[in-house]
Amino acid sequence: MPVVTPGSTDEVAEVMRDAAARKLTVVPTGRGTKLGWGLPVDPDLHVDLSGMGKVLDHQAGDLIVDVQAGVRLSDLQQTVGAAEQRLLVDETVPGATIGGTVATNASGPRRLVAGTARDLLIGVTVVRADGVVARAGGRVVKNVAGYDLGKLMVGSFGTLAVVTEAVFRLHPVPEARRWVGVDVDTAERAHDVTHAVVHSQLVPAAVEVEWPAEGGGTVVVEIAGRSEGVARRVRDLEEILGGATVADVEPATWSSYPWTSGSTGLKLTCVLSGLRDVLTVAREVGAHVRGSSGAGVLYAALEDADAVPGALARLREVCARHEGTVVVVDAPSEVKRAVDVWGPIPALDLMRRVKQQFDPDHRLSPGRFVGGL
Amino acid sequence: MTAAAIDPVAARARALLPPDAVITDPARLRTYECDGLAHYRVVPALVVIPEDSGQLAAVVRACAEHGVPFVARGSGTGLSGGALPHAEGVLVVTSRMRAISAVRADDQRAVVEPGVINLDVTKAATPGGYYYAPDPSSQQICSIGGNVAENSGGAHCLKYGFTTNHVLAADFVTAQGDTVRIGTAAPDSPGYDLLGAVIGSEGTLGVVTSVTLRLVRLPEEVRTMLVGFDSTDHAGAAVSAIIAAGIVPAAIEMMDALAIEAAEEAVHCHYPDGAGAVLVIELDGPAVEVEAEYVEVERLCREAGAFEQRVATDAVDRALIWKGRKSAFAAVGRISPDYIVQDGVIPRTALPEVLAAIAELSRSSGVRVANVFHAGDGNLHPLVLFDESHEGEGDAAEEVSGAILDLCIAHGGSITGEHGVGADKARYLPRMYDEADLDTMQLVRCAFDPQSIANPGKVFPTPRLCGEVPGRRSGVHPAQEAGLAEVF
């Protein structure tokens, strides 16, 4: 498969103009860690952005960072970490780049407080399918001038434009962090623990559930802040939960997905009152669940490929009942062919019209996204 | 479009809406001629006040069928003329759609109609231990629909984010009059983030008729400080030190001497005597964290030269501190017959430099400028003072106001942090974005509203020609024929 590795936004524009002239289909890639997500696509050309891996500017005093799309999330964190700052986006797949994180809106435990890349992206540079370079947003956190194109790019799976540069809002690294874990032997208990924590005034930094296909699970709460504050809040939390264990390192599975290569990975969402039901059905269909129970965003792994269609239908029913959705994130291609990967999408007609405007010839990651976009 | 195009729309509205919800009487139409930016005035051809989403959608559909522009309006408090009516169009007022359909603390969600007043969401959620975080200064009167259109912020968005970070889903009436659901009450609804595009689009993509909001748990402790400094430089140094210490206060607001003088005259807020600048700093969260942060903030302010620090410990004290700040815009009316409220953003670290430049502008032009701003995120609200009755003062004030925006752009900032582009700043947008940027933004407009009937003339200085194929045009251009533009 032909791959080009441009080194700048201008070079990406040149590649895209050339691809447009030759009517080539294009998939923008970073390190390729999530290329298997969405529906399979076999383009004429991969535009590999790993050659654009620089942190362009870190303004510590303004709590912003300007990066090229191919930069590794871990490299970004290392750079801004020198000033005791961080981008509140987790590296859920080792080696992930900013571009891929934006394209998939991948998120981990830290989403509870500040949301996802969607909420932290304040400026974006893109190259359109026709090779035109455009910018939106800027380098200030507060800005309502013009349309927020960055929002449209986040989670668009490379189907609208090629993101080449991004500016993010940063947060300070907390002085202290602790992880308070409690065993949960029923879905009911996982639900109750999550609710007790999120409805408290302790301001948890993360509330994560681990709910295996069988046996008991855990709920782990991250408390972050000033040392004396964290110590006191951890004690308060132990009191609320009873019988908790406190660790000063993240759990081993923190910020990772429950699936492995060959199994089927799902993303489930629901409103918080639906947690109990979703976890119950997940157990019934043999799914291993891990995720941000405090935010209503869970990931599930199914090992038995043959059971995926039936399990998916039941999970979609329960998540829809609780105002959420189920997406098949990562799965063997035969599984993806056998099921509806994205599920029912409201307002699909409007999404088609957006795609039509940005990429009228459907050359950007064709067929990878919702509704065959 | 002809003037008569409004007639079938009015007829449709009369058939569907109660008689008092369809206004064509010129005297009554005139009461809607402006929003919060009162020097722009246009009398609409028709005003409708639908009671539900069905009526609203039907009116929009009639507009689409007859090519009639429509402008949505909530409480009409906007400061950029975003809800300025169209002379040949319909003003769709949402003030009768004020149902708070659900408050579900368990889910941290509320579902409201667009006419619901911002503060009423918090009032409804507070008994359950929650509140709605975005708090524009006009929150006692501004509507959620208007907040969605403008992506409203407020003093506390430094820590909690803007409207766009607090809206999960909406029922949305497209510019064709179709009602679609965008987003889900759960996070991360799959597909393009249409809601992210709609929020802050200033009514140019369609109208929301129901909005699902995120509620935030009330903090255990809130501590509000009023700190007096000799100068804005010292106050600015304190802000930088606080941010550098890794503290994210709920709010950090600054007022300069002239703004303090105005607030003092208007509401007698008893700010420190002789202060060249005050900071209003609010810390919130778990009590133990607030205490630790307070100790540090107090020290940092002292080290930066604060000569007086007061702490509000109860709601009454806190309200008094905020009263001076929140009344600042109206208060300058006490010291100047006329004024322009500017809204620009700079990187926070550029604050001293930009304030010095504003002072120099003021000195060289003789135009007084009072400064009020959200110091934590660099959002400036210079109040440019003038007296309309003195010839030339209005123009001089306009010039200074525009020069301040140029300063913001030159420092890598924005021409608007929260008031929107609207009718007022469309001409400035090309100073911030180049032609390709604006063209790309308008691809979104073309996707949502190819007829360009949703709030036309706002945000973008010139409309894009939707579906245009360069070099293959013949005859009168459709946009020109539709009266949307004359020259491209």
**Integer-rounded radius of gyration of chain A:** 21 Å
Compute the number of helices of chain A. Answer: 12
Main β-sheet, spatial strand arrangement of chain A: 14-11-13-12-16-17-15-18
CATH class of the largest domain in chain B: Alpha Beta
Poorly predicted segments of chain B: 469-488
- If you average the pLDDT of chain A, what whole number results? 97
Query: Main beta sheet of chain A: strand number and arrangement?
Result: 8 strands, antiparallel
Number of domains in the coordinates of chain B?
A: 3
The CATH class name of the largest domain in chain A reads Alpha Beta
SSE blueprint and pairings:
The complex is a heterodimer of chains A (373) and B (488).
Chain A: E1 3-4, H1 9-21, E2 26-29, E3 45-48, E4 55-59, E5 64-68, H2 73-81, E6 85-86, H3 98-104, H4 111-114, H5 117-120, E7 121-128, E8 133-137, H6 149-153, E9 161-169, E10 171-172, E11 176-184, H7 187-198, E12 206-211, E13 217-225, H8 227-241, E14 245-247, E15 264-269, H9 275-284, E16 288-292, E17 297-302, H10 308-321, E18 326-330, H11 333-338, H12 348-358
Parallel strand pairs in A: 1-3, 2-3
Antiparallel strand pairs in A: 4-5, 5-9, 6-10, 7-8, 7-9, 11-13, 11-14, 12-13, 12-16, 15-17, 15-18, 16-17
Helix pairs in contact in A: 7-9, 9-10
Chain B: H1 6-16, E1 22-23, H2 26-30, E2 46-48, H3 53-66, E3 70-73, E4 90-93, E5 100-104, E6 109-112, H4 118-125, E7 130-131, H5 144-150, H6 157-160, E8 167-174, E9 179-183, H7 194-198, E10 206-214, E11 216-217, E12 221-229, H8 232-244, E13 251-256, H9 257-267, E14 277-285, H10 287-303, E15 308-312, H11 315-326, H12 328-331, E16 338-341, E17 344-345, H13 351-365, E18 369-374, E19 379-386, H14 393-410, H15 429-432, H16 435-448, H17 478-481
Parallel strand pairs in B: 2-4, 3-4
Antiparallel strand pairs in B: 1-2, 5-6, 6-10, 7-11, 8-9, 8-10, 12-14, 12-15, 13-14, 13-18, 16-19, 17-19, 18-19
